[in-house]
């Protein structure tokens, strides 16, 4: 007897289809960075650091606000097989993720508090098991929170600069099942997937992704987006508990 397609789908252990993987966070992990965080989402691990340069980005000279840019890299043994260091490659995926991170994190902060300065958020993947870009958004936000907390306590800033709590979650259709926070085994067989970036209040910043095995219906897309926003809310509640 042959097995049905549904019986060959990746099996989840310890969580249902709409429950994200366990999230753990450690702040102030890097003694040299003014803001840093080490975040685990299941087996995916991200180290995020924030640096401040007292120099405006070229396109922000003369403006009333500063700028935030993000960089993303995957360490050679973040995956099962060694990969060449990404700084040596023209990697379109990496550049796409960096732009996503920058847009997401700029939405979280009032950059008028950093006039004539540039914030650099570096997200490095230590271990990859799916969802590295969404975990990087969460880690990057935690590192920014760490930075802002230090600036407030030192008296460098007198007003809290974070205006939105921002996070992200992956969501996909695996067979006919809607699943949130896909690990690698699920992601590689999903027939559609989205990376949803949203605020704790349920406002959407970005949805990135699409169908992998042919078109999906508008109703399926809306279900994915809605589930993604709800998953972001749950992840951010856990993140805020650990901040």
From TrEMBL:
HAMAP family: RNase_PH. This is Ribonuclease PH. It catalyses: tRNA(n+1) + phosphate = tRNA(n) + a ribonucleoside 5'-diphosphate. It comes from Deinococcus terrestris. Belongs to the RNase PH family. One of its GO terms (molecular function) is tRNA nucleotidyltransferase activity. Residues 21-146, 164-230 form the Exoribonuclease phosphorolytic domain. Keywords: Nucleotidyltransferase, RNA-binding, rRNA processing, Transferase, tRNA processing, tRNA-binding. Phosphate binds at residues 93, 131-133. Phosphorolytic 3'-5' exoribonuclease that plays an important role in tRNA 3'-end maturation. Removes nucleotide residues following the 3'-CCA terminus of tRNAs; can also add nucleotides to the ends of RNA molecules by using nucleoside diphosphates as substrates, but this may not be physiologically important. Probably plays a role in initiation of 16S rRNA degradation (leading to ribosome degradation) during starvation. InterPro entries: ExoRNase_PH_dom1 (IPR001247), ExoRNase_PH_dom2 (IPR015847), ExoRNase_PH_dom2_sf (IPR036345), PNPase/RNase_PH_dom_sf (IPR027408), Ribosomal_Su5_D2-typ_SF (IPR020568), RNase_PH (IPR050080), RNase_PH_bac-type (IPR002381), RNase_PH_CS (IPR018336). GO terms for biological process: rRNA catabolic process; rRNA processing; tRNA processing. Homohexameric ring arranged as a trimer of dimers. It holds the Pfam family RNase_PH. Its EC number is 2.7.7.56. It comes from the Bacteria. The keyword DNA-binding does not apply. PANTHER family: EXOSOME COMPLEX COMPONENT, EXOSOME COMPLEX COMPONENT RRP41.
């Amino acid at each position: 007897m042959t097995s049905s397609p549904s019986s060959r789908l990746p099996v989840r252990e310890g969580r249902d289809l709409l429950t994200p993987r366990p999230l753990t966070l450690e702040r102030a992990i890097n003694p040299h960075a003014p803001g840093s965080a080490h975040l685990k989402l299941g087996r995916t691990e991200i180290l995020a650091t924030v640096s401040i340069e007292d120099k405006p980005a070229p396109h922000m000279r003369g403006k009333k606000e500063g700028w935030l840019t993000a960089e993303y890299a995957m360490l050679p043994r973040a995956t099962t097989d060694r990969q060449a260091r990404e700084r040596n490659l023209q990697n379109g995926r990496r550049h796409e993720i960096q732009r996503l991170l920058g847009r997401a994190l700029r939405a979280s902060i009032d950059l008028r508090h950093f006039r004539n300065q540039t914030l650099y958020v570096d997200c490095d993947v230590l271990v990859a098991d799916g969802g590295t870009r969404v975990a990087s958004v969460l880690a990057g936000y935690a590192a920014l929170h760490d930075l802002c907390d230090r600036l407030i306590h030192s008296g460098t800033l007198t007003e809290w600069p974070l205006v939105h709590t921002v996070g992200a979650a992956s969501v996909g259709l695996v067979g006919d099942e809607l699943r949130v926070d896909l690990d690698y085994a699920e992601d590689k067989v999903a027939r559609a997937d989205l990376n949803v970036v949203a605020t704790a209040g349920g406002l959407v910043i970005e949805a990135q992704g699409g169908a992998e095995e042919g078109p999906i219906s508008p109703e399926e897309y809306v279900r994915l987006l809605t589930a993604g926003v709800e998953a972001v809310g749950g992840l951010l509640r856990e993140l805020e508990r650990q901040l």
